[in-house]
Amino acid sequence: MNFKRLVAISRKEFIHIRRDTRSLLFSFLIPFVLLLLFGYALSLDIKNIPFSVLDYNDSAASREFVSGFSQSGYFDLKGYLNSEAELKNTIDSGKSLAVIVIPPDFEKNLKASNKVTVQTIIDGTNSNKASIALGYINAISQSYSARIFTEDKVLKEMKAPLSSEIRVWYNEKLDSRNFIIPGLIAIIMLIIASLLTSQVISREWENGTMEQLIVSPVKPIELIFGKLLPYFIIGMIDLSVIIILGKTLFKVYLRGNILLLFVLSSLFMIGALGMGITISIIAKSQVVSYQLALLTSFLPSYILSGLVFPISSMPKIIQYITYLVPAKYFIIILRGIYLKANTFFILAMDVLYLGVFALLMFIIANFRLVKKLD
Amino acid sequence: MIEIKNLTKDFNSLKAIDNLSLKVPENEIFGLIGPDGSGKTTLMRMLAGIMNLTAGDILYKDKSIAKNTEEIKAFLGYMPQKFSLYGDLSVIENINFYADIYLVPKKERAETIKKLLSFSNLSDFKDRPADKLSGGMKQKLGLSCALIHKPRILLLDEPTNGVDPLSRREFWNILYDLKTQGVTILISTPYMDEAARCDGIALIDKGKLVFTGSPKKIREEYAGNVIEMITSDNILAFEAVSVLEGVSDASIVGEVLHINTAIDFPPETINNKLREISISIIDKKSIEPTIEDVYIYLTKERQKLPSEDHKK
Q1: What is the pLDDT of residue A160?
Q2: CATH number for the domain including B261?
Q3: What's the complex ipTM?
Q4: B141 shares its domain with B265
Q5: What integer best gives the mean pLDDT of chain B?
Q6: How far apart, in whole angstroms, are the C-alpha atoms of residue A251 and residue A17?
Q7: In total, how many domains does chain A have?
Q8: A-chain residues within 8 Å CB-CB of B51?
Q9: Residue of chain B nearest A214, judged by CA positions
Q10: B67 lies in the same domain as B196
Q11: Which of A84, B59, B81, B86 sits between 20 and 30 A of B140, alpha carbons compared?
Q12: Are residues B161 and B52 in the same domain?
């Protein structure tokens, strides 16, 4: 391998990127936009659930019960309803996601320490949102009943046989940003390493420039590394930008070792670049290679990596498939370093997988890049 | 210098090159002549070492290209038929890129580039993106990049295709210049008039060698006469003459009627025929057969004898 030739190819590739608006957008604007979108818009925490109340009791107790919801921070009281018809209307129109129906004998039964049933009607169109809202409603109702329970003078004497105290580690407020933004690093790296890189060799075939290049003494390995170097550098720049913006804009703090993060991100990036260029070498046309990159590396990484959708809730067969997705291991590494301050040894198996993947990709790329036209 | 031995190239069922043998002497401008689809580009690509050979071999000074590909490529300059430099890179960036790839030492680089830019008249355009160059300038840039490492052998695949006549003449002057510097040039072209500019030529048709030799010698292959005439009505004359027994081919080239006849064809037959239909002859002369005449003649002769091909 000749280093001068490698640098010459890298320099040329940098000129291509600099003069191509699309490459510039993909390299610098889209990662930033994604960070903002994921950081601000994609929140898996459901807050301000719109709800209404149909209160047949209209007592101090029922109002106190309702205020438990509006003060929780998870619910937004849209108003009191007067009839079943209004209830149907508010759910149908989407003004309220949930309606709490309080029975006429609510206060009376509470005071008499009788069992009280409160009805909740939930719009189940968005099942994910509905089940989370349901969980909140249950929790708030239970905490209300627990309070009534302890306020009751007779019952106060008795002690609860079992109480559980839950503490959350690593992401104390269970803020979804804390696990989305580190995972996003993998997605942004894939945009550069796979979508952008999938074009670099196929473009040369398509434009016919490869014919002139393969007559020269350039070696496939020089061509591969030379072409990938600029994208690797862009990936590292983007990584730095995400770390800084994650901290300043979204208060997602890197708890682990920054050097380890860069080293392991480089490893993932190298594997992804290897995959991108392998696709580019095999496809020989820009459209095909772009589609291939989208289908084989970007989409699986987005859906099957555990970035947004938990792998444990996927069907068993799909779960096995996720073992083949490199981004899955990288996201474990990212969250490990970012939130748990994991050290190298804890992540060793994931690192090993990424290493093997990267090596394999470069072997295939080098093997498949033949300096012949047929 | 270059020896092509029983070369065959198959693309699936299609035989692009069919058992072709050819010798190209050192320091000649050697032309590969043939129409589109005759296999010129395939042959050039195999000569450049960027296409696998199905059978046979190509030897450069007794070294087989199949085994010594990279070693041979080092002293080859190749210019593909399609412009294959980077359109978004300027003239000088393209040249510098290839200088880097061929590891041209920094010391001689400035000198070489200066020379290349001046003989290709691109000095004033060195910062222009390659995409914004005219067809002729693009070809000269391609040639400059192919020459950056001072190759001993230059392979040019239809370099003058689609280039205006003035630029074409200029391009040929560059080639003559290179020849005096000792470069062997193998050029392919569909233009028969360019064949006359070569020291040696090979006529190719459907992947087979039809003839090889000097342009002078090829005319001797022609068994027949060529008559050029101007008449009062070339179109009617053409229709009348082309059906005569003994006329193998006739065509209207610009102002003149170009007629190929058999060797024993009495030229008066044409005069008699035209007199019958009262067309007057303004001018009539016997000329040397052009290479195009010979090419058409030879390919027609081959088609007449398909059985002989099988015997070979």
Answers
A1: 52
A2: 3.30.70.100
A3: 0.84
A4: no
A5: 90
A6: 32
A7: 2
A8: 372-374
A9: B50
A10: yes
A11: B59
A12: yes
Which two three-digit tokens encode residue A274?
A: 């290897």
DSSP state of B259: E
Co-location of B144 and B9 in the same domain? yes
Instruction: Answer whether residue A154 shows pLDDT above 60.
Output: no
Q: How far apart are CA A219 and CA A207, in angstroms?
A: 20
For chain A, helix (H) and strand (E) counts, in that order, are 18, 4
Tokens of A278: 């392998």
Query: What length does chain B have?
Result: 312
Percent of chain B with pLDDT strictly greater than 90 = 56
Q: Does B48 touch chain A (CB under 8 A)?
A: yes
Interface check for A21 against chain B (CB to CB < 8 A): the answer is no
Q: Does B98 touch chain A (CB under 8 A)?
A: yes
Same domain, A62 and A37: no
Residues A18, A121: one domain? no
Contact assignment for A208 to B100 by CB distance below 8 Å: no
CA dist A118 → A106, A141, A146, A288 (Å): 8, 9, 15, 58
| Number of other residues whose CB lies within 10 A of the CB of residue A101 | 17
- A168 inside domain: no
**Domain residues for A122?**
49-156
Q: Is B309 within a domain? A: no
From B198, B219, B240, the end of a domain falls on B219
Find out whether B161 and B136 touch, Cβ atoms under 8 Å.
Answer: no
> pLDDT of B206-237, one tens digit each?
999 988 999 888 888 888 889 999 999 889 99
> Is A5 in contact with B48 (Cβ distance < 8 A)?
no
The predicted-structure confidence for A12-39, as pLDDT tens digits, reads as follows: 999 999 999 989 998 999 899 999 988 8
Residue type, B100: D
Q: Which residues of A touch B85 (CB under 8 A)?
A: 209, 212
CA geometry: angle A97, A98, A102, nearest 5 deg: 160
Read off φ and ψ for residue A195, nearest 5 degrees.
-65, -45
Query: In chain B, which residue's Cα lies nearest the Cα of A20?
Result: B88
Judgement on whether residues A90 and A232 belong to the same structural domain of the protein: no
| pLDDT, tens digit, 9 for 90 and up, residues A219-262 | 999 999 999 999 999 999 999 999 999 999 988 999 999 999 99
Q: In chain A, which among 149-208 make CB contacts under 8 A with chain B?
A: 207-208
- Kindly indicate the confidence band of residue A177, based on its pLDDT and cuts at 50, 70 and 90: confident
Q: Say whether A208 and B84 touch across the interface (CB within 8 A).
A: yes
Both B201 and B269 in one domain: the answer is no
Residue A322 falls inside a structural domain: yes
Q: Which of the listed residues A156, A185, A211 is the one where a domain comes to its end? A: A156
What's A139's domain CATH number?
Answer: 3.40.1710.10
User: Quick one: A25 and A61 in the same domain?
Assistant: no
Q: What residue numbers bound the domain in which B167 lies?
A: 2-219
Q: What is the mean pLDDT of residues B8-35?
A: 92
pTM of the model: 0.81
Q: Is B78 on the interface with A (CB under 8 A)?
A: yes
- Residue A8 and residue B100 in contact, taking contact as beta carbons nearer than 8 Å: yes
B132 and B236 co-located in one domain:
no
Q: Which of residues 164-203 of B touch A (CB under 8 A)?
A: none
Among all chains, which residue has been given the structure tokens 């222009």? B128
Q: Alpha helix (H) ranges present in chain B?
A: 40-47, 69-73, 91-101, 106-119, 135-147, 165-180, 192-195, 215-220, 234-242, 268-276, 291-304, 306-311
Q: Which tokens belong to A254?
A: 């890197």
**Alpha-carbon distance B307 to nearest alpha carbon in chain A (angstroms):** 32
pLDDT confidence band for B194 (50 / 70 / 90): confident
Same domain (yes/no): A74, A122: yes
Residue B302 domain-assigned (yes or no):
no
Q: Which residues of B touch A372 (CB under 8 A)?
A: 50-52
* Nearest residue, CB atoms, B85 vs list A209, A216, A372: A209
pLDDT of residue B306: 55
